[in-house]
Input
Amino acid sequence: MSAEIFFIRLYNVNYQKVYDFAYKLCGDRHRAKDITQQCFLRLWEKIDTISSESEDIFPLLFVIAKRVVIDESRKATTSALAHKDIYHTSSGTVDETESRMHYKQLRHRLSNVLQSLPDKPRKVYQYRDSGYSHKEIADMLNISVTTVRTHLRTATHLIRKNIGNTTIIAAAACLLWACGKDKDPAAPTGPVTNAEVNRWILDSMNYFYYWKDGLPATPDASAEATAWFGQLKNTADRFSIIYDPAVPASYPAGLRSIYGMEATVIAYPKAPGGALGVVQLVQPGSPAASKELKRGQLFTRINGTLLSTSNAASLLAKLVTDKKADLTMATRGTDGAITETTVQKVTAGGITEEPAIQQSVVLNTTPKTAYLCFNYFDDTQSAALLQTFSAYKQQGVQQLVLDLRYSPGGSTAMAAILTALIGNNIDAGSIFAKYIGNSRLGNRTMTFAQTMALPERGTAVTFSQVKPIQLQLSQVYILTGPHTASAAEMIVNNLKPYTNIVQIGSVTLGKDEGMITIADGRNPKRIPWVLMPITYKLQNANGEGGYNKGIAPAYQVDELAALPLQPLGNTADPLTAKALELIGVAGGRVSHQPPTTVQNAAISPAMTHPVLITHP
Output
């Protein structure tokens, strides 16, 4: 564990206790903040002497805090009055804004200093900053552990000489600001009002929201939270959400999150109503799977109403809102005629776990080709991904068909892992993504190692785990569709600087934006809502982004043009077959006819966020 990560953990665990103790000593909340900050600054200076196995360091912090109070006693009165004046004129936000300004300036100075360092000390510092141990760095740079320590001392000395010891503290303070500000003992008491909730929403959006310019100065005290959030959203914002974890009805919902399936309706003149429902995906263990629904099955009615091109969208929407329905199943004859068969009931219920790896097949071809249907970017399933690529490496896979057509995205840490496993000449310090934020957050660049070190859940994967099983492909074939979103689109865009992308299928959804999760971290919690606002626009290492209208494939192929749908991974699937044709392996379908275009009557909305609803 790096010193920085260890420090942030200590900060999280002990901040409130140190703050409360400092507040008891001085009786002024602003001075208590200053004392607490000074306390953690001094802790950082001692961090190398503290064992990462230490469970309780509060006694040490207790001593440091008392020393800080003694050292600060001469200026306590002046400091308290100054902070009090600031508080009364700015509602308590100036000190936080000033900290963010200092943080931005320090990070800029740190970046300049790092660029001036010799190559080896700079790389050692950056790898250490990303969480790698001395041994891992030594292995990656082919030097001894002693040399790693020497380079790290050199880098640290030069950094401290130029900008002092406060940079990492400022960085940690910025990362933890949203939590820290909620730990203020002056929080409101009594019943939670609309005004308090809406103020919290507005404050959060003012700091994190990509389109923060133009937000109102004061909240609407009378509006209900969801309505107020809707008023704040920019007209260009398609994806920001708000929900109450205790109220399932407030969760964003779709066929995927309720039934564990994807379905669409296409115009089909031979169907009884002129339109035909097609089941595209069924997740294992889902409510749809329990009813034995399968990819490729057809249906003609929802709750007895014949599907038509005019009512398809409203019937699919009702399928979502009602959380239950009767589907009239059908078969298609060799002449294309549709025959209705049985009525299948579908209901919400159970738990739908999105598998990261939907299907993995190594084809017996020359060159050796693997097909991977990667469905969900879930950090807790990173071990399965590493195991899959380890098998590819052992079997000598030379070409990869990556199927992302039903992938809604998820963790960017997982996206970085998958990109690093595929791309050519990617190392820990290579740029994975550039984040373009608002005027307060600014822009930032993240390397692969830095991104992988910040999983949303589970244990972080280190670059040393990825390096031995990288395929280092100069070209990769990616299958996409209108449900390809978010982190899945990042794979398509962020691989471009490192390998040639051959994209096959349909245009992706067009989510070139990153969201964060904001919740009230106080104890007791007062605000029940969770916000997921758009915070950044996304770019690859070359600064390429701007795909809000989707990423168009080089080869447009519609899987619905050839019914029945083939199982995922089957070489007869039109998208997979096209990839194999381009690779030039046996089994690839060579087509000299123009692709058939299917008219979609309605498509279920793409899931652009984690599956939030797992039971009725």
